[in-house]
Amino acid sequence: MQNFRSNYILIAAALIIFFKILTNLSLYTDSYDYALYTDRYERSQYVLNIRATNIISDDDLYSYAGYYYITGGEVSRVNFENPPLGKYLIGISILLFNNQRVIYIFYTLLFLLLIYKMGLLIFKNPVIASMGVFWAVIDPYFTRQMFYPMLDLPMAIFFIIGLYKFIIGRQSKNYLISSLFFGLSMATKFFPALVLILLFLMFYQWVFRRNQFSVFLLSLSLVPIVYSVSYFELFRRVSLVGFLEFQWWMLKWRTANPVVIGNALESIFLGRYRTWWSFAPHYNYYSSDWTPLIPFAVSISLYSVFVFRKNSLFILTYAVMALFFIYLNILTEGSLKYLIVIYVFLTLFTAGTIYTVLRQMIHGNTFRRRR
Questions:
Q1: In three state form, how does the secondary structure of 98-151 look?
Q2: Which pLDDT tens digit goes with each residue over 153-168?
Q3: First-to-final CA distance of the chain
Q4: Is it the case that residue 275 has pLDDT exceeding 90?
């Protein structure tokens, strides 16, 4: 019966995604115009600073950088503040499909698959896993991810695959694959929170799976290796010392960005954020990115600790979610887009809590009627 219900939910989710792609088909059929994006970039704040005549968006910047990189451009010249892998993948989409967004259809479907797989792993319940998928496809915050070539979605995908393989554990192969994908995640976008999460995973491994601690620890050497390999173009021009100097320069540039404590809370619960890039900070409001589904999911997910049994797997996934949520609020500017990193857990803990509470209510009413 559970599989039957799960299949119905997944079919409904698939139809919704298909409809959203169909109604936005022009986004995936428009030809990439390198001359247009070059013009936008050369008139932007990244080239002309305060004299800019065009404020280029992040998705346009990554679209330009992706094609620039994949055709031999230097990764240290355009959008140097983020690692290059995610932009290379955008460039590959342009070469294969003459469109920078097509690859995001594949990202979206893979992300939904990860929600389902992680749901089965955590709850052992296909209905909860399917409800998590359905929640994602009705949430504009998530579905808009497939329309804009940003780096956050592929970064989150690589991270969740790495975490999934870590949870499975047991064999050295799983830990190696886990660290490989953690490295891919770090190579996709600047992701300092991963360091904190990896430290927590080491602690978890020591407490719950100490006999596999050394295997996981050794596998982590893959993370900096994969990250460094993504800079293969830079290594053609500089030595290892030059690469490390570039990384230090990039880190100083990133840490010079202001931290806006609590901005993430306003983004989540009020749909607005304080600007951090202007001399006179003011509020901007999210448009179609924000709906009440976001604060509802965050609230229910945090509350779920009082609903589910505290086994080691729930402790692990809930702690990763909570750790990133704290990081987001006190160590970043608080942009809503970063929430995608823990979105898998937001959907699943929300779906699981709703499912559990409804079952308790139904069974409670049934019991009272029988009495």
A1: CCCCHHHHHHHHHHHHHHHHHHHHHHCCHHHHHHHHHHHHHCHHHHHHHCCCCC
A2: 999 999 999 999 999 9
A3: 26
A4: no
